[in-house]
Design goal:
Number of strands: 0
CATH superfamily: 23S rRNA-intervening sequence
Number of helices: 4
Distance between the termini: 7 Å
CATH topology: de novo design (two linked rop proteins)
Amino acid sequence: MAKRDGCCNGYIYTLFETLPHQEQYGLISQMQRSAVSIPSNIAEGAGRTTDKEFSHFMGISIGSAFELYTQILLSERIGYIDVITKEKLVSAISELQRMLIGYKKKLDENISPDKGKTIPLTNNKPSNF
């Protein structure tokens, strides 16, 4: 999962170089925060001691992925990126979203109704992380 997100971030940071300078503190800043938030929240959640806590941070990562997806669509709509670039990014982000949602569902299956299930930290990290 971390490898997939790293690939997505590589595309995003390359994209920033092509966007208009006046967007440095607008759309670019929003996209940077969204792109950085995804792996940051996965890492923070992996460091927690319960599946419930980890699931919470996975939910934040998923939300950030949807924010980034929307910002990419907006970038194409206002003419900052072309359709091919948008499709490449949307495809990568969509795959990442599916992976994050699937992993969160697995975590949620481990959670008892009244509290998070405590598991050893070594088993709490996503694969490829």
